[in-house]
Design goal:
By secondary structure, the chain is mainly alpha-helical. It has helices at about 1-20, 25-45, 50-60, 75-90, 95-110, 115-135, 140-150, 165-170; strands at about 185-190, 190-195. It is built from eight helices and two strands, in the order H-H-H-H-H-H-H-H-E-E. It has a two-stranded antiparallel sheet. A hairpin with a 2-residue loop joins strand 1 (about 185-190) and strand 2 (about 190-195). The radius of gyration is 23 Å and the shape is globular.
């Protein structure tokens, strides 16, 4: 099931890259897709450090000003996805501080992303980060990231996150504290009423 979910996650990633890049950049797109596939395989094999290294190569391809900047947003969606993927692997590798830094960079790139694809890019970035926290056992952070992504306008891809169901569940109702038992006019010691 996890392999299917990961494979499905790659499909929109590749489609997003194709939408973000011009026809002259198709060679870079194919090479980037191979980095993504190799990183996913490394991660599934338990080698998160290799996955991080491969994801960093993807980020490096799109960080130049001619790839993504305030004045040139052609590849900002791709850069946001690359940062989100890197954050995912860093968190899975146990380095949530680096993961949060990459996540912050992804948000910056999303701010410059073409509005036509921003909703899908947002969903994929937040889903990746939420899923990483879910897998490492930090369910509270996973749900918080999911909710933040939903509020930021992420589309249906957000709901591929494991945190989606948990985010929509009402908080557990707690029974009110009944307090100490009645004393019936006497003192209460260790829960036992003593009559005068």
């Amino acid at each position: 099931m996890n392999a299917l979910k990961n494979a499905l996650a790659v499909v929109p990633w590749v489609l997003m890259m194709a939408a973000c890049e011009s026809a002259s950049d198709q060679t870079a797109s194919y090479q980037t897709a191979s980095y993504q596939t190799a990183a996913m395989q490394a991660s599934e094999g338990g080698d998160q450090k290799a996955a991080v290294s491969l994801a960093k190569k993807e980020v490096a391809r799109f960080t130049a000003p001619d790839q993504c900047s305030r004045t040139n947003s052609v590849n900002c969606g791709t850069l946001a996805l690359a940062w989100g993927t890197l954050a995912n692997y860093q968190i899975l590798d146990g380095d949530s501080t680096a993961g949060e830094g990459s996540f912050s960079s992804a948000k910056g790139a999303l701010g410059w992303t073409d509005p036509a694809i921003r909703s899908s890019a947002t969903a994929m970035v937040y889903r990746d980060v939420s899923e990483a926290y879910w897998k490492t056992g930090d369910r509270a952070r996973a749900v918080a990231v999911f909710n933040e992504g939903r509020a930021a306008g992420g589309d249906m891809w957000m709901y591929m996150s494991s945190a989606a169901r948990a985010a929509d569940e009402p908080p557990a109702r707690q029974a009110p504290d009944p307090g100490p038992p009645p004393s019936r006019g006497g003192a209460v010691i260790a829960g036992t009423a003593l009559s005068p």
